[in-house]
Amino acid sequence: MTRADTAIPLSAREAVYTEVLPGVGRLRLIPLAPESDADLLYGWVREDRARFWGMQSMSRDDVRDIYLFVDSLDTHHAYLMCIDDEPVGLFQTYEPLRDPVADAYPARPGDTGLHLLLAPATRPVRNFTATLLAGLIRFLFSDPAKDRVVAEPDARNSKAIRRFEDFGFEAGAKVQLAEKEAQLVFLSRERFESRRV
Prior knowledge:
Layout: E1 17-21, E2 25-31, H1 38-45, H2 60-71, E3 76-83, E4 86-94, E5 111-118, H3 128-140, E6 148-151, H4 158-167, E7 170-176, E8 181-188, H5 189-195
Parallel strand pairs: 5-6
Antiparallel strand pairs: 1-2, 2-3, 3-4, 4-5, 6-8, 7-8
C-alpha cells in the first residue's frame, strides 16, 4: 500500500477473512498497511494496557518501521481486526518454525503462531474477546496444514494468560525469549473443535 492509498476507508480495503460473529458483528481481517495505519497503531501501543507489547517508548516511525519489516516477511503477517468496519485491534500470525520462538520449544510444521492486541473498547460487548478469538482461530485453522495454535504472552500478563486458558489453550513451559519471559500456551485443532457448540 502506498501513501496514495491512505485515504481508502477500511470498508473499501480488501479482507483476507470475513465472518459474522454472533452478538459481536462482522469480523474482517484486513492486511495492515504500515504507512497508513501507523498513527492508529502508535495510539494503541502507547496505552498502559499495551505495556506488555513492548512498544510504549517507541516513536511513531519506530512502530511503522517494525511493521514495514513484518510486511516484508513471507512467514509473518499483521492484520487490522475490524468489527463492522471499526478497528478493534491488531492480529499477527507467524510460522513458529521460522521464528526465534522455535529456539524455545520443539516447534513442529503444523504449528501456527498468533499475537493479539485489543484496542480500547468503545462499547462493552459481553464475551467479546472469546467470540473474537474463536473467529481468529477458525481463520488460522482454515489452513488444513495447521493443527496447533501457539501463543507466547508475557509471563507477567496474567490477564492474557487467563483468557487463553479460559478459552481452552493449555499452558506449556515458561521460556525466555529475547525481549521477555513468555508463557507458552497451545490449542490443538482437535481441542478447539471439541469445545465448539
